[in-house]
Structures are given as C-alpha cells and as structure tokens.
Write a structure and sequence with these properties.
two-stranded antiparallel sheet; two-stranded antiparallel ribbon; alpha+beta; extended; 4 helices; 4 strands
C-alpha cells in the first residue's frame, strides 16, 4: 500500500512539473486528440529560442498528445553512439554543419477573410496575442 502511495506521489509531482514547464494553458476536449494549448488575451505559449548550437550537438523541439508542448531537448553526438561490436547493424550519420541547405522561418498559415471575421470577435488584447503569435520576434508560427 505504501508503495502505491509513493508511486502516485511521484507521478503527481511529475505531472505538475510538466504543466509548469510547458507553459501551456491546457484545454481538454472529448475525443482522441483531446489536449490543446489555448491562447487568450493574457497568455499564449511561445516557441522557444534555439540560439547557437555547438558543433557536436543538436536541438530537438517536440510536441505530443501526451501534453508536451514545445519541449526542448539538447542532444550531443558521441563517438560511443556509433561504436558497436556488430558493425553491420550500425547506421552512420555524417553531418557537415558548414553546409546549410535551408533556413526555416515558420510553418504555414494564412489570414483569410474568415480569419478576419473571427478575429473581430476577440477582445483587442486577444487580437494582439494572436497577431504576435504569428508575426512577432517571439512568435513566428
């Protein structure tokens, strides 16, 4: 019985830390994709700044149906990662950081007539939050 209590407590604290860490105003809806992050007139979660990435590193930013929103994970490449006794089962990845193929500035989205109509139904501060989510230095959806 005591074991279950500690397990529950650890899960509860983990859930609280994820909620605080994600900075997401959670809304739940019925159905398989039930969790969304909502924006309102006072709050909208922001995509984290990536900044400079060291040569032997990568940054992974992910979201999931389990509640992760814009979770940043810093990864380091290691020679141990590529070493194996079974050489035929090893996949080698060579990344030349000096050669850039593209720069991503954001992902899709359009302001159509219907967006304009719906935008007018929001309060002025909620309108500003939405516009900033798309076009500000912090936003750039």
């Amino acid at each position: 019985m005591e074991h279950r209590f500690w397990l529950f407590l650890i899960q509860f604290l983990l859930l609280i830390s994820l909620t605080v860490q994600t900075g997401c105003l959670r809304r739940y809806y019925p159905g398989p994709k039930q969790l969304v992050c909502a924006c309102n007139s006072t709050f909208c979660d922001e995509f984290p700044r990536v900044g400079r990435i060291p040569v032997d590193s990568a940054v992974l930013i992910s979201s999931s149906q389990n509640g992760f929103r814009f979770e940043r994970e810093d990864l380091r490449f290691s020679s141990k990662f590529f070493e194996s006794k079974e050489k035929e089962n090893v996949t080698r990845i060579l990344i030349d950081g000096r050669q850039r193929f593209q720069t991503i500035h954001g992902f899709g989205g359009a302001f159509t007539d219907s967006v304009g109509i719906n935008l007018e139904t929001l309060t002025e501060s909620a309108q500003k939050q939405l516009i900033n989510a798309y076009f500000s230095e912090k936003g750039q959806i």
